[in-house]
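BUG: 3D viewer hangs when loading the predicted structure for this chain

Environment: internal workstation, default settings.
Expected: structure renders.
Actual: progress bar stalls at 90%.

Input used:
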Amino acid sequence: MTQLHDTDRRGFASDNYAGAHPEVLAAIAEANGGHQVAYGEDVYTARLQELMREHFGEQTETYPVFNGTGANVTALTSLLPRWGAVIAAKTAHINTDENGAPERVSGLKLLTVDTPDGKLTPDLIDLEAWGWGDEHRAQPLAVSITQTTELGTLYSVDEIRAIAEHAHSHGMALHMDGARISNAAAALGVPLREFTTDAGVDILSFGGTKNGVLYGEAVVVLNPAASVGMIFLRKLSMQLASKMRFVSAQLIALLTDDLYLRSAGHANAMATRLRAAVEGIDGLGFTQPTQSNAVFAVLPPRVADRLREKFRFYDWNPATGEVRWMCSFDTTEADIDAFAAAIREELAR
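Structure tokens produced before the viewer hung:
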């Protein structure tokens, strides 16, 4: 097929824009050929189960799925009865960017809380953690946090542990949307299980697409006692891949030789480089700390539109001029330097 795009062109709109990591593509090719049993009874999915247990504990159960929304919806559905509700930050992806799927597909209720930085705390959870036994109120039975958050911020191990203990004390389960869990692991510098299993997370949506996987995520059940019916819910939610070996092979590649850390660590470093390159420029401000692969900035009117003529990125809050710049596993230092130079040039006009 004739190549239809310029492979040297990169932007800062989303880490979803990046292609697949070469090691992931190689893994898909290696998994091809011959026949393997369909629907997850293949040797690659079996190996993925082993790897996930090495990272998260022997009790772990892993269910590869197609995408992040599917992972979140299926995971939350397994935690809750029909009358259950989930407490989440108002900025959470399950609330803002999944087209109502958790509520429409699962029939659950989202109870959202305003946060200054995308992070929940026990006190913020308590704003919605009430009304148990009241037949007129959806029952708060789960908490969902995102690591790293939609605002690029990072939960510490102690913060996650405090949330888990608080949720469990009220009989609520804890779900983690780990769309960018690799960026969190790279930033924290600790093993995956230290801020998940060992901190009290019950179920995890493990992200791959934003970190070099072609397609595919996984629901990782860390506490089997908290999750019911995953084997059925994955099919019911249209997330059961017939040729599952190709999803599993990609996630195996991500977890082999620390590729997930190498790729995410590089993306984080590029965001740090970008912030350092533009910090202190007159007319530009920041709204969040840069703790992962995202930079949230504020630009004067019309500057963002002029910059987008060369570098694609999104407005986060058009009313305030807030924009989001995302770095990826394939962002280069030259990309950062060129973008920073363009920002300086536009702000000097």
